[in-house]
Amino acid sequence: MNNIIIGTAGHIDHGKTTLIKALTGVDTDRLKEEKKRGISIDLGFTSFKINPNKTAGIIDVPGHEKFLKNMLAGVAGMDIILLVVSAEEGVMPQTKEHLDILNLIGIKKGIIVLTKADKVDDEFLEMVKEDLRAHVKSSFLEDAEIIPVDSISKRGIDLLISKIDKLTEEFEPKNLNVAPRLFVDRIFSIKGFGSVVTGTLIEGILRVDDLVYLYPKKIESRVRGLQVHSQKTDIAYAGQRVAVNLSNISLDDVQRGDILSSNPNLSVSMMLDAKLTMLNDISKDLEHWDRVRVYHGAREILARVVPLESDILAKGKSGYVQLRLEEEVSCKEKDHIILRFYSPLETIGGGIILDSDPEKHTINTLNIVEKLSLKEKGTLSDRILQLIQSKTVLVNKEILIKELGDEASKIANEIDLMLENEELIEVAGLLIDTKGLDNIVGQIQKQLKYYHSKFPFRAGASKEELRTKITFKLKPKEFDALMNFLESKSIVSMNDQYVSSYGFEVCFDDKALALKNEIESYYINNKTPLQTDKIIGNSLESLEMIHYLIGRSLVKLSDDLFYDKLLIEEYQSIVKKYLDKNGEVSIKNLKDETELSRKYLIAIMEYFDRIKFTKRSGEVRISYDRN
């Protein structure tokens, strides 16, 4: 069964709490002052057995304007609204304000309940109904049932219950495939058990013994116990009112508005990007840097507004804004928010979060409106591409799932489809879009063209040098994987640590060929390593030819010391012989075998260390693979 939360809304003294008592037998006014004054001050909670097989949670909200902040703390997670209107008074200011808030918060279903119907005659009742129809036109309640009731005699209550029962069947299943999130709206302590938080489980599944975090402080805790509808349980599902007993948490660690989740990577930010819709009849337009109160879940945060399309967001209009918060908040994209002016307290609009951890930007930020429009209206594949294209690094699936905030399996499936359609390329587990890949390829080809022109005798640019020349910030292993991918696509060629354009070959004219033969003859005819400047000087052509011969007929031992490759292979065989026989080899051993000086043998052995053939152990060398 799909779990449902039912909430009340309406003006003060229109009978919300009395209606809940008629439905459930429970008086949700729990505070002494509520009993004394006869009005609801804070949220009230109970459960409602709709039929023998179906139980819903109920949240009763205060109707007085003074306690609207508490009303706002309760609306997050409501599924069905009972808009309570007194048949004696009809629509009143808080009726309208509550209805505006419910529209802005994205509520889709509800019933209009005309309480105190026994106090008026049928003609007056019909007149109130007509007035109600006019007020709810173009709202989510436009086609809602209007049910007159008398909560004292319970006339009409059975009909109301049957309508609620029918409405609960119209909901899609809640999202259980994401990490649980619970908006904390009540905190208390029980002797012998410790701290307990209650709230509506917005999404996911919560289990006893789950490792959880309280955001935005990200305080770690563990679920000691759970209750749903006042009954102990080992598991709670999205759409339920849940009491959570937490271990190692004091009452000072948690406050109303915190978010409880098992996700260790929820974003925490001092800024939000949002799409706002302003109410039509507010006292003034929303202007740049206005101070506002932002309501998210059960929390109120102060913020400054930065409109991103013009300096003013006019009444009745919609637009993109950035909210600069005065304290940290944790939320997800597509979460709803409500805005009120800081002073005077007036509900002015609401909307959805498009980026829960954005960079700072203003109306002058390039393409910001287009980017936010894509976040708002784009498909999942559009949003995946936008996120990847906004990065200067390659990203993996885990980062995309964290930043997109959607169901993990849904994102993973979409990525697989995009890989199949070649909209994305995967390199060593990292993702890049085809446009980004074309950008990288263009940069690499430009760098290699320049390099081959400047150094025509070299096999190519070093990987490390090339890596630092492109705008994408790639780690060495990531760059290696990318180069291997490009080589498989015949875009580049690789030779050890060097990269060249695919098909590039060093071409020698007669002069260059003579220089090559001259240099090689020096090394072939000498049994000792030689410094280049002592045999051929330091001309640019000579040094470039040396670079070309490295890896072919020469081996580089140090910055200016080179040796014939065949001789190095011969010495490597001598070292291997000692290692196989004795397990180690010393400079003295090699001096006896090769008649080279200690200076050159040290250079050769350090080269063997660098290529991971040997490693030093005190005064001797051992095999690199030896433990």
From TrEMBL:
Function noted in UniProt: Translation factor necessary for the incorporation of selenocysteine into proteins. It probably replaces EF-Tu for the insertion of selenocysteine directed by the UGA codon. SelB binds GTP and GDP.
Pfam families reported in the protein's UniProt record? Beta-barrel_SelB (PF25461), GTP_EFTU (PF00009), GTP_EFTU_D2 (PF03144), WHD_2nd_SelB (PF09106), WHD_3rd_SelB (PF09107)
Q: Where in the cell is it found?
A: Cytoplasm
Lineage runs: Bacteria, Bacillati, Bacillota, Clostridia, Peptostreptococcales
Keyword Transferase present in the record's keywords: the answer is no
Q: Which organism is it from?
A: Acetoanaerobium noterae
A GO CC term attached to the entry: cytosol
Q: Where is the Tr-type G domain?
A: 1-174
A GO BP term here is: selenocysteine incorporation
Record SUPFAM superfamilies = EF-Tu/eEF-1alpha/eIF2-gamma C-terminal domain, P-loop containing nucleoside triphosphate hydrolases, Translation proteins, Winged helix' DNA-binding domain
Specify where it is mainly localized. Answer: cytoplasm
Task: Tell whether Calcium is among the UniProt keywords.
Answer: no
Mind listing the GO molecular function terms for this protein? GTP binding; GTPase activity; RNA binding; translation elongation factor activity
Q: Cite the entry's keywords alphabetically.
A: Cytoplasm, Elongation factor, GTP-binding, Nucleotide-binding, Protein biosynthesis
PROSITE patterns, alphabetized: G_TR_1, G_TR_2
Q: What is this protein called?
A: Selenocysteine-specific elongation factor
Q: Which InterPro entries match?
A: Beta-barrel_SelB, EF-Tu_GTPase, EFTu-like_2, Elong_fac_SelB-wing-hlx_typ-2, G_TR_CS, P-loop_NTPase, SelB_WHD4, Small_GTP-bd
